[in-house]
Amino acid sequence: MSYDFIFLLEEPSIKIVLDEILPKLIPDHVHYICIAHQGKQDLAKSIPKKIKAFQSKPATKFVILHDQDSHNCKILKDKLLAICQESGKSDVSIRIICHELESWFLGDLAAVEKAYALKKQSLSKKQDQRKFRDPDQLNSAKQELKKLVSEYYPATHAKAIAPYLSLADNKSHSFQVFLAGIRKLVNDKR
């Protein structure tokens, strides 16, 4: 099959989220695949191989999605772009999640509340608290989420939260930048 978009993802939990939100953004006639990796090093090693494997399809657009963690966002993007350019592909869309995937979840506490049926705690009301108005600024979103939902475990619970994520109301700036980037790629494809 020929793909319009190939998403290269740092980890399986990101794939879980994209499997939920991409069908809401990408029309049925546009073909894509999400390829999850087992961390940063696996992703970096895989990029040249994937670019080479799909070189015969120059119209295919690659989207790389990577957690920022403690890296400098610009340096990380430049490093990933250099890997792509050395592999013969420079028109790659690189999106960095600030700081980690859980920032996207903290940007939509209503989704977390629904996923865990936490009505009594009114978790969504905490969205107005300073730290949850801009969850991308949290250095450890994973720890913050664990404080709110003690049973949270990344890969398993991404499945629980992802179906409820709002594309319109999420407070995570990196989530909104990602969505805008995908919408632009889809519009350019038309």
Describe the structure in your own words.
- By secondary structure, the chain is of the alpha/beta class.
- The protein contains 9 helices and 4 strands, in the order E-H-E-H-E-H-E-H-H-H-H-H-H.
- Strands 2-1-3-4 form a 4-stranded parallel beta sheet, sandwiched between helices.
- It is globular, with a radius of gyration of 17 Å.
- The two termini are 19 Å apart.
- The mean pLDDT is 91.
List keywords for this structure.
alpha/beta, Rossmann fold, 2 domains, 9 helices
Q: TL;DR?
A:
With 190 residues, this protein is an alpha/beta fold. The protein has helices at residues 12-25, 40-53, 73-86, 101-106, 109-115, 130-133, 141-148, 154-161, 173-189; strands spanning 5-9, 32-36, 61-67, 93-97.
